[in-house]
Amino acid sequence: MTVQLAIFIVSLSALIWGSDLLITQSGRIAKRFGISEYVIGATLVALGTSLPEMAASITANLHGKPDMAVANVIGSNIFNISLVLALVFLVAKSVNPDRDFFAKDSSWALFPVLLFILMVMDGVLSRFDGILLLLLMFAYVLFLLRENKEMVAFEDEEESEFSATKVALLAIFGLVLVVVGAEYTIESASYLAKAVGVNDWIIGIVMLSLGTSLPELVVSVTAALKGKADMAIGTIIGSNMANITIVLGSAVVLKKIDISLQQYSFDIATMVVATLMLVFLSANKLYTKPAGISLLILLAIFLQHTLSAI
Predict the structure, then answer these.
(1) Residue 19 region, left (φ>0) first, then alpha (ψ -120 to 50), else beta?
(2) What is the dihedral of CA 56, 57, 62, 64, to 10 degrees?
């Protein structure tokens, strides 16, 4: 018990330190090459922080636990919006992103959710469905690269001090700390949960989803505290895209998944509502603390229903 508690503290510290490194170096890369912080957040950072979800879902599906693979993706998307985005709004002094998220990005958060619902109506997520999901993420990345209109060399007094190799290595090291730290945080937290009598269902459905969302949580909140609202929101939108398209898509390409739409009706409905709330908030530019509280209310409803079903 004591050893696992120590592992939890150390791994969580690595997660936090790694996120700070990743945000700092990603910001330097964006500034140096004229790439918007949103694009960096929605691609490099979002894909990196989705690695725990990918590892968890692929492993679960290959080990004959397809329900857990799907639940991890659904739960992670819910937590990303109702918890992570809520905390971004609550901890940031002000959220005034330069980018118009409603006009340019909110639809990309909704597309994969709608396609997912359409795909599971026949009770099967096939390999073909997985390929289509992967293609959708490819289309999103192309869209982001085309949207980036600032691809010009950045020149200022710091240019001579910029070392691409050093920055890249530090960013990779930070990403490794985030992923490894999240992995050990999940494992130690699961052990501690079992030790205090929490059953496997809660660990699999709630803790796995929440645990694999830790990188997004720490990275986005850190970005918000550093005044990088575009990167924080970009990480959340990009991560939700990656969860359904790359994470679930990869798991399904390796092995098809049979899924009961009725069994997951409440969870899927909650994911849809969370995504629609994201679209509504971005449409009206409600990046405020009251909006954060509204998202936390959705999280409370989700957790109450989940825990009461045990």
Answers:
(1) alpha
(2) 100
pLDDT digits (tens, 9 = 90+) for 152-185: 444 443 555 667 788 888 888 988 888 788 778 7
Radius of gyration from C-alpha coordinates of the chain:
19
Q: How large is the greatest C-alpha to C-alpha distance in the chain, in angstroms?
A: 60
Q: What is the pLDDT of residues 142-151, one digit of tens each?
A: 887 777 654 4
* Residue indicated by tokens 């990603």: 26
User: Cα(233)–Cα(37) distance, rounded to whole angstroms?
Assistant: 10
How far is residue 61 CA from its own chain's centroid? 20
Helix (H) or strand (E) holding 34: none
74-88, 122-136, 164-178: range with lowest mean pLDDT: 164-178
Locate the domains of the chain by residue range. 38-148+198-308
Distances (CA, A) of 59 to 74, 78, 137, 224, 247: 16, 21, 21, 32, 11
Which pLDDT tens digit goes with each residue over 249-307? 999 999 999 988 887 889 999 999 999 999 999 889 899 999 999 999 999 999 999 88
Q: In the predicted model, is pLDDT for residue 58 greater than 80?
A: yes
Virtual CA dihedral for 276, 220, 138, 178, nearest 10 degrees?
-140
In the structure, what pLDDT confidence band is assigned to residue 18 with cuts at 50, 70 and 90?
A: confident
What are the residues whose beta carbons fall under 8 Å from the beta carbon of 100, sequence distance 6 or more? none
Residue 309 burial (CB < 10 Å; 0-12/13-18/19+)?
exposed
Classify burial at 38, counting beta carbons within 10 Å of its beta carbon; exposed 0-12, middle 13-18, buried 19 or more.
Answer: buried
Full-model pTM: 0.80
Any residues with CB less than 8 A from the CB of 209 and at least 6 apart, and which?
A: 71, 72, 74, 75, 76, 78, 79
- The yes/no answer on whether domain 38-148+198-308 falls in CATH 1.20.1420.30 is yes
